[in-house]
């Protein structure tokens, strides 16, 4: 009697098995033979990435639940309003669908001194929270047009929202309140912005739907060990790999003149239309930008319900970008001596031996070679680990684990006590209990009720705001700030990572001297990102908008209301008066047919700033602040907690608080002077300091 539609539920449940087979067919349509080639705009984003085998099994089982949701919604309700499906969840519990592929939930050891790879067992009561391949979290329920997975539409007319490229063209020139500062003021430098990208990659990595997925199933009775994360499975995954593999799905015709019609395009296609009068793409006669929907997975409770996207990395700020998310990667990266990680002759990054084409660097996250600047940030942490680990113990395992633990603690200290106060403002960062000095005050404690998952609104909305501030040019400077090299951003791509071998310090100087770009979106990212040989690239702003819609992220006004505790009711354009300047509001009104349609990132970039020259306004600060709160209070291993399984002592914590970005740079590079606060451009208030004057970090305090 608790299952009001038991019979219909049973009927839908039977369909689930068919859905699973259909899913496999759907991903490999027999006549579909259009794929992106290497010289395709945005190729790097569309190339198929690595997903560890067993997780494909999660995806296909999750698809069963999604199809069931569709059946319930359409067959039982025959209407468009999103129904509350909670009554059905108990009718659909199927142990053959909802088993754990990778989380050894009964085997967490609460006393274990170290984090697991992949973030499982951080929350003992709910071991998958924040773990790799769990779903992105949500601040608000998703807003899909069909309630399940299709892109949001206009709130008043149910018509399609304006093409992201039209919005990008109209709203990219001007970022509200941001003005290029004078040389007297210190602002976030390019170096500090790329640290933001590094954090991004630590907490999130969505996956494109791929055309050739292995079909896996679990063999219960065969006992063999399959190594994933911390444990050993006592069952085997048998996978069949379709023989096609390689580059990803293509949703546009060969010369981008049109989107492929639905009957011949891949089901995961959500291409972006380019308006015919486009001032950049017009020269290529291009009318279509490739775009593939993200892979979805189970909701955290494995219930029927709308689509939830999979996050392939651990959400925790655990430097998974450096150390990897699984034991196999850990093994590949360790030198087995003194706890050190392997590296190449130039001490930049490890390289794949005898690799035929550049770049060949690798580390915990495959995105590291996107630009030399990003690869360099990985290299800095690699060097820090290798500096610390040998000083921790003479035993390789202890040195590795303790080195990893301290490196991660220093990283968290940089995030919370040096970087976030710049991004959110000192007061916001303090008031939201993010930055805090434990040697001077009580910094709170771990709260197991906090869900640390990376939210969709954060990763695929607000935290992409810095994309708008990336400069058009990257400069390299010598020791006396003499210009050594200057490159357009779209030329500073993966083919250039080798400059780290020759110009390591020059690149750091270039990025710390140069401010982020306050002048609005760079054409380098909005037209030429990952360009092909003819100079046609893709548009990151359009991607960001389309991605938000693909993930069902609610519109800006919904999050604005949430952030003001629903005290703000937005029923008309005039209700938005206080949040935007009149000029911005006019532009928004020209683009969107309803005030309720504004895409989240568009609103975050255009809302009035909280303080002068801040890069963020209140809604952006709210979403980003909330995420960092979750990543702090929901992390059992956060470095400041004094009651964890293996806490730092008070003197150790005091030493960690003395660490800074300046000290970091002086310890692992040959630079002789750095900005006092190295995330900010040097100025009278943030002078260059000599490395000789910065006290060395006292590693002896941490040795075992
Ligand atoms: C420096 C140059 C950068 C480039 C070329 C770049 C490019 C990209 C691309 C291509 C994506 C995937 C887009 C999609 O298909 O949805 C992405 C995702 C993202 N970017 Fe950037 N980005 C850069 C810097 C940054 C910075 C500085 C930040 C923030 C501080 C940032 C935040 C993000 C976030 C949060 C995501 C989503 C990550 C996820 O999958 O969870 N990016 N970026
Ligand atoms: Ca992580």
TrEMBL record:
The keyword Membrane does not apply. One of its GO terms (molecular function) is peroxidase activity. Keywords: Heme, Iron, Metal-binding, Oxidoreductase, Peroxidase, Signal. This is Peroxidase. The lineage of its organism: Eukaryota, Metazoa, Ecdysozoa, Arthropoda, Hexapoda. Heme b binds at residue 467. GO terms for biological process: response to oxidative stress. It comes from Pseudolycoriella hygida. Pfam families: An_peroxidase (PF03098). InterPro entries: Haem_peroxidase_animal, Haem_peroxidase_sf, Haem_peroxidase_sf_animal.
